[in-house]
Amino acid sequence: MLAYQHAYHAGNFADVHKHLGLRQLVSVMMRKSSAISFVDTHAGRGLYPLAAAETQKLGEFHDGIERLWQRRRSFGVESPIGEWLASLATLQSGSELSRYPGSPWWLGSTLRSQDRLTLFELHPGEHRHLSDQTVSPHAGVQRRHADGLKGLVKLVPVSTPRLCVLIDPSYEKKDEYQEVAETLIQVVRKVRHAVVLIWYPLLPAGRHRLLLDTLRQAGIPKLWRSELQVREPIADRGMYGSGLLLLNSPWQLDRELNHAFTTLASVLADGARHQGEWWTGEA
Ligand code: SAM
């Protein structure tokens, strides 16, 4: 049974880390005109009103997007964070931050006519929300009520010259780390040049290491890892950080992200830190 609902966590520090990285990745890939198929394997909803009861209940956005929003004038308009906040501003009705978008919007809102976007969402209620929301001005968006990892494997190879995938599970099941690793291995076998961004939580149990180690042992090359730690790991305090694994990072994106995420850490919490490193090198 699927219990997780992203509305309880929308706009938290992990969303900010993930969506800033995702938007920067998309923007760098779009510097070339050739068509891209985007796939979001665990889409959630397109948009989250911050006043919603679920989002207010935990109020996680106060320690995430709200901190950046309050300091938005301090970022250069052409810096990655400044540009990212400017996109977010287009969704607000005034100067107040009232809505935060999910990955379908971060991927869909800059889609070009030659690109495609496939969104997988398995939870019936979340899929209904997603179907009711506009995430892109273009027609090339498909919303599928299906398992995202199995769906991705069936979908590849794609007909466009380039492929960009976001894998962002809720990790409700312990074996999801292994499933994600196995899915990536299958995708790379079919599309060696696939660009894939995987999100994972940093939890005291450290289960994300299974994902990282499986991929390294399988010999998957060119994986860049970014970990943003906002507090020390304490047994019963849950998620202490957010991780991203990027396969086939475009040229120099790792340097741009390192810089943006270091700035992000300094805004999110006292003592927060970012570490970016190549987890695996060239083949
Ligand atoms: N990617 C979203 C974003 O960044 O805004 C957040 C996604 S949330 C972490 C995970 C989502 O995956 C939930 O909406 C959940 O219902 C959905 N989900 C869980 N298992 C799934 C599966 N096997 N296939 C597709 N979606 C699934």
Automatic annotation (TrEMBL):
GO terms for biological process: rRNA base methylation. Gene3D superfamilies: Vaccinia Virus protein VP39. GO terms for molecular function: 23S rRNA (adenine(2030)-N(6))-methyltransferase activity; RNA binding. It catalyses: adenosine(2030) in 23S rRNA + S-adenosyl-L-methionine = N(6)-methyladenosine(2030) in 23S rRNA + S-adenosyl-L-homocysteine + H(+). Pfam families: RsmJ. Keywords: Methyltransferase, RNA-binding, rRNA processing, S-adenosyl-L-methionine, Transferase. The record marks Y4 as: Interaction with substrate rRNA. Its EC number is 2.1.1.266. The active site is at D168 (proton acceptor). SUPFAM superfamilies: S-adenosyl-L-methionine-dependent methyltransferases (SSF53335). It is an enzyme of class 2 (transferase). Monomer. HAMAP family: 23SrRNA_methyltr_J. Specifically methylates the adenine in position 2030 of 23S rRNA. This is Ribosomal RNA large subunit methyltransferase J. It comes from Salinicola corii.
